[in-house]
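Study this chain:
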Amino acid sequence: MQEGVATDSVALEAIEKLGPREKWRIVKNIAVLGIAFMIHFTAFHGTSNLQSSLHSDGSLGAYTLACIYGSLIVSNLFLPVLVIRLLGCKWTIVVSFVAYMPYIAAQFYPSFGTLIPSGLAVGFGGGPLWCAKCTYLSIIAEAFSIATRRKVRTDYLIVKFFSLFFVFYQLAQVLGNLISFTVLSYGEADSLVNGTIESSVNISVTCGANYAAPIHQEAQSAIDLKRPEPEQVNRLTGIFLACMVAASISVALGVDSLKRYNMVRKSPRNNVSGMNTLVITLRQLSHKYQLLLLPIVSFIGIEQAFITADFTKSFVACGLGISYIGYAMISFGLANTVAAACTPYVTKHLGRRLLILVTYVFHAALIVFMLLWTPTDEYYKYSIIVACWGLADGVWLIQINSLSGILFPGNEEAAFSNFRLWEACGSVIMYSASSFFPTFHKLLFVLGMMTVGAMGYGMIELMEYRAKRIDSEKNFEVVSQEPQDS
């Protein structure tokens, strides 16, 4: 029996004492948590998608996003285990939500003095937030499995619960971008004619993969990004700030504390001090599977940063205008939601290996198309491209996030902290490069990192295949918590 994990009989007896409807209470917790994240990140994604285009002077928007994910790196190294130990998963989520609010409020008075510090606060809150969420879902998945007398495997429930959560979470992209488009385009002259958008730039030459970084543009002012009025931006900011307040209240009042399920798993890390948090996170890197996952985890951060900062600016804002960023990115959120909902069922029929292979080929083909595509003023084509990207992103996010919970049971805090750490590293690299490299080169970089990451994942599968030939009882789904010798 693993340290800190209750026996099935003890845990089952304890859960049965909670009542026959405990399974539905667990589902309620997932639903409330997912809805709260949806409301919260409706505001965050709706704001962040506009940053690189709305605050392009001095690359303020891109640097703000880099600060968010740069501080997230520090946060993941030092804060998650400490904060979760002090506050518990539920209240860690609430406090972390509050840490995001200054970033939204700073949009009223955007400058380096307001956006950079508030962006740092978002990153410091983000590490504990995502680690607490992942730990919460993993533990209540185990509780649900025990409540059903192990009729459903815990590893499958983890994937399914993550999928249910991300259905809600990915809807944030839809709602955030829908609100953004509605508010910023309100009162505009109707420039939509026969499916095209009037533009003052030569889209086929200037936009898309041909878009040059600001440092290489001889006349940056010649590119008209069609900025919205300040009153429209302030109205949008007020709506998003109210969303974050509502999300915090929802978790505080509607989600049960994990103390309710202490009989399922008492974390072996409960005696960790803040001085040891860095050691715990880095010690996880001694596991060869964790090392092999790092490239694909970093790729997820890179591709998400590209679609948020570079696609929105070099493709959508350049060709259609800033107000149409929300319109195009609605497709990304819808596709992400579909992928989150369907991934567990597709995985069940195709298997994880085949699904990841298909996703790699699909995503690589999309990047090659974007490299060769000549942009036009037909707005629906941008929506199709970003929808395809959203489908691939949804599969990557669900599969790799779930692996961090499946491969390292009992070490969720360290595993998910590493996930967010290296995902943030990828995002920082991409946001920092936004001002220096052409979009063409950045697309090649995304393709290269995806290839390296897929190879790392493939090596895990290969090692497990060889291990099973020696020991047929070897189970890929749950590996030893102790680091394996290379």
User: Anything to note?
Assistant: The first strand starts at residue 192 and ends at 193. The CA atoms of residues 214 and 435 lie 6 Å apart. The chain has a mean pLDDT of 80. The radius of gyration is 22 Å.
